[in-house]
Amino acid sequence: MFSLMAEHSTEKIKFDQGMEMNYWQPKYELMAREELEELQLRRLKSVAEKVYKNVPFYHKKFQEAGVAPEDINSLADISRLPTTRKQDLRDNYPFGLFAVPREEVVRVHASSGTTGKPTVVGYTARDIETWSDLMARDFVMVGVEKKDIFQNAVNYGFFTGGLGVHYGIERMGAMAVPSGVGNTERQLEIMMDFGVTVLHCTPSYALYLAETAKARGVVEKLSLRIGCFGAEPWSDESRRELEEALNIKAYDSYGLSEMMGPGVAFECQEQDGLHIWEDHFLIEILDKSEQPCAPGEPGELVITSLTKEAMPLIRYHTGDVTYIMEDKCPCGRTSRKLHRFLGRADDMLIVRGINVFPSQIEDVLVSIPEIGSYFQVIVDRKKHGLDEISIQVELKDEAFTGELSDLARIQKKTEERLKSVLNVRSKIELVEKGSIPRTAGKSKKVVDRRDVYSKDEKEKK
Ligand code: DLL
């Protein structure tokens, strides 16, 4: 059933106003809102019936909530359905949430998580088809063409970014270069030798690639024109830096294994919000008390899979904080856009009773010209239970020369700005460029050592 041959191909559509644009599945990408919502409702009913019938976990949850699939008569009825969280995947490890017989599942992916068992997700052959088409939509949306040479510099194992992106590249017909992770010198060599035009990797690895290319003086030898970066948060400042350093247009890509992998939401060429493919995902933005947020108000993104066969999830709490941008997009696509992610609901640090998001720290740091792109926040619990934030920040080379070289001034300025934004004092440690470990995968921006301290203290007692 599964084949790599595309059922679709890029379609050029000309609008009345003279605008011409490429789409992969224009029937869905340009669907009128009303029609899209009818489709969503049909799909929601069908997925609710499927999980109620086939997944004991959901059957029980629906019964506990006093709701049955027949009770869904409008999209608003979603609020009556039970929710799903990461812990539910762990509790049903490995295959307990599959909604189809095991032999229908043709692939699994998994994420390691920080504690306990990994979370496992499964795909039928049709799920892989859908995923490949959504990735193809994304790539066509940002201007990738069949003639492009597309390097996928992420892990090809359990991580969904490897195979997920790879199948999308092949589906839309560009040439996939599955370079995987690591060996940065070799990645650059391949990029030059093959004439790579599109790069996909994590934004932190892209910054490292750019830094290495600059240090080796090979930027001029690259033919890159598009960068697709995701799997972790990154700032507008990092975007500017990447676009400048690599001579590309850089796009934000969002996804999560539980829903599919990459390709759930992606920026279009406007670079102003990420279109979430609403024919496949029903979205809610909820506040801490599980109530819908007002339009434009940030909250937790909660997603229901509308078409996933192997493991559809109902009202999955992503932990990711964003808001819906209601304005019509000039690219013509009718799927609404999510604002770039503001952080994770559970990433929020509570330091001396004050809520601190790592993204707030990043916003301050990128506003200081002497500071480079890498930082690491360390939260420690000192004696008497007092928490302290210290932040290691890398300086740009220029910070050590000329007028900028007053390190004490940079440190004081950074601490003052952070204090005014966070309302809590933090200690800044300026370090040389290259001191903070680079990674080919997701970077670790926050190290919370408070648990370690508490455990040590308990052991001493
Ligand atoms: O990271 C899928 C992916 C691969 C997305 C490649 C984009 C590119 P997971 O490993 O399951 O899946 O991690 C999902 O990563 O809930 C977010 O917290 C975070 N994340 C992913 N993309 C973005 C983004 C992949 N563009 C988790 N901005 C999600 C901010 C992101 N956070």
Describe this structure in words.
There is one protein chain. The chain has 461 residues and is of the alpha/beta class. It has helices at residues 26-29, 33-54, 56-64, 86-91, 125-141, 160-172, 184-194, 203-216, 236-246, 358-366, 407-422, 450-460; strands spanning 11-14, 20-23, 105-111, 119-124, 149-152, 175-177, 198-201, 226-230, 249-256, 261-267, 274-276, 281-286, 299-305, 316-322, 324-325, 337-338, 343-344, 349-351, 354-356, 371-381, 387-395, 426-431, 446-448. It has a nine-stranded mixed sheet. It has a four-stranded antiparallel sheet with strand order 12-13-14-17. Strands 22-21-20-23 form a four-stranded mixed sheet. Strand 3 (105-111) and strand 4 (119-124) form a beta hairpin. Helix 7 crosses helix 8 (203-216). The longest helix is centred in the first third of the chain and has 22 residues, at 33-54. It is globular.
What attributes does this structure have?
461 residues, alpha/beta, four-stranded antiparallel β-sheet, 12 helices, disordered C terminus, binds 5'-O-[hydroxy(phenylacetyl)phosphoryl]adenosine
Topology:
Elements: E1 11-14, E2 20-23, H1 26-29, H2 33-54, H3 56-64, H4 86-91, E3 105-111, E4 119-124, H5 125-141, E5 149-152, H6 160-172, E6 175-177, H7 184-194, E7 198-201, H8 203-216, E8 226-230, H9 236-246, E9 249-256, E10 261-267, E11 274-276, E12 281-286, E13 299-305, E14 316-322, E15 324-325, E16 337-338, E17 343-344, E18 349-351, E19 354-356, H10 358-366, E20 371-381, E21 387-395, H11 407-422, E22 426-431, E23 446-448, H12 450-460
Parallel strand pairs: 5-6, 5-7, 7-8, 8-9, 20-23, 21-22
Antiparallel strand pairs: 1-2, 3-4, 9-10, 10-11, 11-16, 12-13, 13-14, 14-17, 15-16, 18-19, 20-21
Helix pairs in contact: 2-3, 5-6, 7-8, 8-9, 10-11
Bound molecules: 5'-O-[hydroxy(phenylacetyl)phosphoryl]adenosine (DLL).
